[in-house]
Write a structure and sequence with these properties.
Layout (H helix, E strand, L loop, with lengths): L8 H7 L2 H22 L12 H28 L6 H16 L8 H10 L4 H29 L2 H4 L9 H29 L2 H11 L9 H18 L4 H29 L9 H15 L10 H10 L6 H15 L1 H18 L1
Helix pairs in contact: 2-13, 2-14, 3-4, 3-11, 4-5, 4-15, 5-6, 6-8, 6-10, 6-11, 6-12, 8-9, 8-10, 8-12, 9-10, 11-12, 11-14, 12-13, 13-14
Pfam families: LPG_synthase_TM (PF03706)
Organism: Ancylomarina subtilis
Subcellular location: Cell membrane
Length: 354
């Protein structure tokens, strides 16, 4: 099978160059500094009462990130049928997250994941199947959760809609979220069809689409994607429902824990009566934020993520300066650790495997 350029070891070496890691850090901090310079007011932190609840909230935030990673590890062991030890699984997940942190959100780290799994001992077909299955389960989580959230919450409040607000921001966000959701739904339908029904037909369709002049330069990648789907289908279509239930439960725990990180941070720095903190709405807003972050062209959504946080969660926080500071704390807990862990692990992994 022809090797996919995106999983070429040479590109892995380029991924750990210092400037590749520095860029997302610089972009994120540049946006934070700009927002602080624009909106920060003296006395902002006078609103915060530091107490044992602050420490408890931050501890829970870190605990949620640990649960999130544990969920990913458990899912990987389920999908590989316990092929890897917990230690090896941890290493794969950290490397996967590192490459996700260095690529735009829409691309993610999946292009490297097949290589990680293959070099750790899985054959190429099985590696492709596992990566495709993780993509399927992630998209399924979003597709199921958004309608459930809409049934439970005031959708106008959720989408920041106000009949008195004539600014284009609210309507633009709504259109962006709905458009992204429909794209995710279409992707899930096409992926499900290819994995479980007609993989060769999907490969033919991909190659036909990528004959178009505007897409022709990506035809080789489309051919590889089609081949991966065919290989994946052989391994996945005969799995029973217990297998998929366990894998989806691990996915559910992982993504849900990721979102509760912000709830925990707001709990730590909440400036008002704790009983007024609407945790379900905060959780739901993050679901929408993550859909919006998929369009970010920056590595790991740097800059755009911080801005979306201030726009979409700012109404829960009394001061803009505090909102920006909490956005930075959120990224320090949920994003930057993977950069530093990956910088430590990836050179050793490359030296061992190449």
């Amino acid at each position: 099978m022809e090797q996919n350029n995106s999983t070429n070891p040479t590109k892995l070496l380029k991924a750990i160059r210092p400037q590749r890691v520095i860029w997302p850090i610089l972009i994120g901090f540049a946006v934070i500094i700009y927002l602080l310079a624009k909106d920060f007011k003296p006395g902002t932190f006078d609103l915060v009462e530091f107490s044992w609840l602050t420490l408890l909230g931050l501890f829970i935030a870190f605990l949620m990130m640990a649960l999130r990673d544990f969920g990913y590890m458990a899912r990987l062991r389920i999908l590989t049928e316990n092929e890897f030890s917990w230690l090896k699984t941890f290493r794969i997940i950290m490397l996967w997250e590192f490459t996700s942190a260095l690529t735009p959100s829409a691309i993610g780290g999946t292009s490297f994941a097949i290589l990680y799994l293959n070099k750790e001992g899985l054959n190429l077909g099985k590696s492709s199947a596992v990566v495709m299955a993780t993509s399927f389960l992630d998209e399924l989580y979003f597709i199921i959760m958004l309608p459930l959230i809409l049934l439970m919450l005031d959708w106008q409040q959720l989408f920041l809609l106000d009949i008195t607000d004539t600014s284009p921001l609210a309507s633009s966000l709504l259109l962006l979220i709905l458009g992204a959701y429909l794209l995710k739904l279409a992707y899930l339908v096409v992926l499900s069809y290819g994995l479980f029904k007609n993989p060769r037909g999907l490969k033919w369709l991909l190659l036909w689409i990528f004959k178009l002049p505007i897409l022709r330069k990506w035809k080789q990648g489309a051919n590889q994607a089609g081949t991966d789907i065919i290989e994946s289908s052989k391994d996945l279509k005969n799995k029973n429902y217990i297998f998929w239930l366990k894998a989806f439960f691990a996915t559910f725990c992982s993504w849900t824990a990721r979102y509760w990180v912000v709830n925990s941070i707001l709990l730590a720095f909440w400036c008002c009566d704790y009983s007024t903190l609407d945790h379900l709405m905060i959780f739901a807003r993050q679901l929408l934020m993550w859909i919006m972050m998929l369009i970010s062209p920056t590595p790991g959504g740097s800059g755009f993520s911080e801005w979306v946080f201030t726009q979409y969660l700012g109404d829960f926080i009394p001061e803009a300066g505090l909102t920006i500071t909490l956005a930075l704390i959120w990224r320090l807990i949920s994003y930057y650790p993977y950069l530093f862990i990956g910088m430590y692990l990836l050179p050793k992994w490359i030296k061992k495997n190449f």
